[in-house]
Amino acid sequence: MQALQVEIERLSASDACIGCGRCVAVCPNEALEIDGLESLGAATQSAAEMVVRLECSRVPDDEDRPGTVRVPCLGAVSTGWLVQLQAHAGDRPVHVIDRGWCATCPAGGQARH
After folding, report:
1. To 10 degrees, the CA torsion angle through 35, 41, 43, 46?
2. What is the pLDDT of residue 39?
């Protein structure tokens, strides 16, 4: 999104930031954080379903299914975060649900992350 502003003492997000978290996934030092990617244990423990479903926060609530863990953007999910999610899910499989909406999303504007 080109929303990060680098200053001498800090890194901040400009008004162009839409809160998708894609910068978190690509940060080589894991120095960035965003709300919605931190509570893995609670999200997976509350779901008594056989499958843990990972979905974008843009999916309407009425289309939510049991066992869903919502993230700001599927593009915000790093490999490390996905491994942690699987560890919290235990024996249950984790399904990453892409409904094909990424192409029209302001966070990516492309068919795939």
Report:
1. -150
2. 55
pLDDT band per the 50, 70, 90 thresholds, residue 99: confident
Q: Is the dihedral of CA 27, 30, 35, 36 positive or negative?
A: positive
pLDDT of residue 87: 85
Q: CB burial class (10 A; 0-12, 13-18, 19+) of residue 105?
A: middle
CA distance 70 to 22: 15
Q: Output the six-digit token pair for 30.
A: 């894991």
**CA distances (Å), origin 36, targets 8, 67, 88, 110:** 28, 16, 16, 22
pLDDT higher than threshold 70 for residue 92: yes
What pTM, to 2 d.p., does this model score? 0.68
Tokens of 15: 């008004």
Handedness of CA 106, 18, 1, 65 (dihedral sign): negative
Rounded (5°) CA angle 102-35-25? 55
